[in-house]
Amino acid sequence: MLQKFSVAHALVHEPRLIIADEPTANLDSEARGNLLSLILKLNRDKKITFLISSHILFELSRVCNSMVIINRGKVWASGKLDDLLNKLKTKLVRVSTDKPEELAAEVKKLSYVAHIEADVRSILIGVTSEDYNHVYSDILDIAKNLELR
C-alpha cells in the first residue's frame, strides 16, 4: 500500500523522472506485477522515465531497457538490457501457466537454470547455457508431467 501511495505522491507534480529505491520491496507477487505494469503504463502513456534501484535483476527486466550494475560503489557493467544479458551469458525465458509456483519448483531443478522467479501468471527463468533452446522442450515436458496449462 505504501508503494502505491509513494507512486501517487510522486505523480502529483507531473514529473518527467521518478527515482524509486526498491519499489517492489515487501509486496506479494501479484502486487509486484501490478506495480511493474503501472510503471510500464506511466512510461508509455505519460513519458515518465523511471530510475529504479533494485537487486532483483530478473524482475526489472520486465520494465527496463537499460541498466547499470554497481558493485561496491563502482560501475561493474552498464548498457542496454539485451547487451548486458548477452555479456553475462544469461538468457531470460518467460512461461505463462495456471500454476507458476508448481512449475517453478520443478524447473529450478534443471542444471542450466541460474535463477527462477514466479508471479501469479508466469515464471521468469534465467538460463546460463549457451545452448538454451532446449529449455522450451524441457519446460513443456515438465508442464505435461504436472498436467499444467
Write the layout of secondary structure elements.
Elements: H1 2-11, E1 17-21, H2 29-46, E2 49-53, H3 57-60, E3 66-71, E4 74-80, H4 81-87, E5 91-96, H5 100-107, E6 113-118, E7 122-127, H6 134-146
Parallel strand pairs: 1-2
Antiparallel strand pairs: 3-4, 5-7, 6-7
Helix pairs in contact: 5-6
Structure explained in plain terms:
With 149 residues, the chain is α+β, with helices and mostly antiparallel strands. It folds into two domains: 1-81, Rossmann fold (3-Layer(aba) Sandwich); 89-149, 2-Layer Sandwich (Alpha-Beta Plaits). Helices cover 40% and strands 28% of the residues. The chain has helices at residues 2-11, 29-46, 57-60, 81-87, 100-107, 134-146; strands at residues 17-21, 49-53, 66-71, 74-80, 91-96, 113-118, 122-127. Strands 5-7-6 form a three-stranded antiparallel beta sheet, with helices on one face. A two-stranded parallel ribbon has the order 1-2. The chain has a two-stranded antiparallel ribbon with strand order 3-4. β6 and β7 form a beta hairpin. α5 packs across α6 (134-146). The mean pLDDT is 85.
